[in-house]
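Practice problem: predict the structure.
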Amino acid sequence: MKTIVYYRGDSKDARELEREIGPYLTGKGVEVISVTSRDDLSALPPGAPDGSFVLSLGGDGTFLRAARLSTQLGLPVLGINLGSLGFLTDVEENEVYASLDAVLARAYTVEHRLVLEARVVREGQEILNTTAINDVLVVRDVTGKILTFEVFIGGVRAGQITADGLMVCTPTGSTGYSLSAGGPILDPMVEALVLTPLAPHDFTSRPLVVSAGSEITIKVKPSRDKAAFMRDGERVGDIHSFDTISVRRYPEDAAIIRLREKNFYKVLGAKFHWGG
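Answer:
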């Protein structure tokens, strides 16, 4: 069995916890591989024995990176919360060892979450292909001009939107940036995607919920300024005029380890104080 421990290299708390749990897992016959950046991914050996998993040490941002990694590797992911919100992570720091023992005994369930795949095409060439757990978006730079997008749903032109940016999010991401931009909250088990304009110029440009099987294509209309392409809160590239962004459901879901029942609506009330 292998455990791939993912954490931010600049996190002192995560680094200290990794130093503690590494020998604990090794003593139980588990091979431990630590990963702190995308550069470490090339060093990962191919394949993993049955029962292997990814362990995320940090907050929700770290968990999103670990979940993308786990999806790429075809492994489930367990999140240990070292942040403040902990909306996605399942285990608090004082529960670490009991939780690890439960995972090693395979006393857990797996919750599947929809993942996005996004492609950016420029002048007929694919320049970026990435996955996202929460969302992908195109947004103007701080000093840039407002952007205009032509939107197609399933190959059919749905309209033109002028806004600061345009986002596609999963049900998991509906409680993130999309929510701040006026998007709806979706139950994470709903099979849907949300298209959310950011500060739209036209008040009729409202968030749109579409089938999870739909491919959303966004064509960027001419502009003098570049825009940013974001994935799960990270800038991963620039967008130019005439670029095309295609977003669809990734063939594999993220598999999240749950050690106890985690009711979405109870978490929504406890973390977000929804409705009061």
